[in-house]
């Protein structure tokens, strides 16, 4: 059963490169920086902040220390906020 407070980014795949067995490439969904989101209402922003705090609480409950919680490290999967989709070259 998944915990709704778990806001961690899923790992989709890991790729081992030749001669680099100890440092795989991690494949994750495309995320946007928090400051690039098209919030239209204060309520959307408040909901996002609540989800970030829930995620932080979840990590702490599982003895995970983030060590660098700041505005610049807030990322979001905006696929539901941006219905036309995202492109890495034109977010």
Architecture overview:
The protein has one domain (13-76). Helix content is 22%, strand content 19%. The protein is built from 1 helix and 4 strands, in the order βββαβ. The strands form 2 sheets. It has a two-stranded antiparallel ribbon. Strands 3-4 form a two-stranded antiparallel ribbon. It has one helix spanning 42-61, and strands at residues 13-17, 20-27, 32-33, 75-76. By secondary structure, it is of the alpha+beta class. The model has no long low-confidence stretch (mean pLDDT 81).
Portion in beta strands: 15-25%
How many E strands?
4
- Counting helices, strands and paired strands, the structural category is alpha+beta
**Between the first and last Cα atoms, what is the distance in angstroms?**
33 Å
Largest sheet: 2 strands, antiparallel
Low-confidence stretches: none
Helical segment count: 1
Mean pLDDT across the residues is 81
Oligomer category = single chain
Q: What Rg, in angstroms, do the CA atoms define?
A: 15 Å
Q: Based on CA inertia axes, which overall geometry fits? A: globular
Helix content: 10-25%
Structurally, how many domains make up the residues? 1
Order of helices and strands: EEEHE
Strand order of the largest sheet: 1-2
Short description:
The chain has 91 residues and is α+β, with helices and mostly antiparallel strands. Helices cover 22% and strands 19% of the residues.
Pick out its properties.
alpha+beta, 1 helix, globular
